[in-house]
Amino acid sequence: MTWKSLPNRGETLRAVTAEADRRLDGVLPTDVEGVSDTFPDDLALLGALQLRWHARLSGRIERELLLHQPMDLEAAVVAAWRAAAADLPGTRAIIDRHRDHPTDEAMAAAVAKATAKEHAMLAVAAGLAGPQDAAAARIGARLESDARATYVVPQRVRAPRRRATFLDRLRSVLAA
Known about the structure:
The chain is mainly α. It has one domain. Helix content is 69%, strand content 0%. The protein has 8 helices and no strands. It is globular, with a radius of gyration of 18 Å.
């Protein structure tokens, strides 16, 4: 891996996320330009999307707990899960699809492990379990279920507008 591959990986992952949000079909968008050069297989791409989801969920939980200082931690965690799902609906759909229908044993094991860790994080953030509690994953699964009960899955998300680059702005000035 060279220093040039890191920005390319980030750009590719952003393009994959945007395409997933546009499609909302739960299918890994392996046809996005750069995916085959950046990710060796579907499991690597799914892992990158799970990491992005986990980071967004963690950030939403932190924001909910710090900014709103809720008295009901469970409700705050549920609200944070819904907000993260609204931010990344295509990514959430892909994770859900591969959790329900993994393509092979390696993917099933990876998704199960990531799901258990996510559930444990939800339970700990809600103050219902400690990080080492055996029941944390079960409690977190209940919190996710509560969040899903009131989450409205979007039908279609408009593709985000491409931000004008410096070169785009320079061209428009020169054209004027």
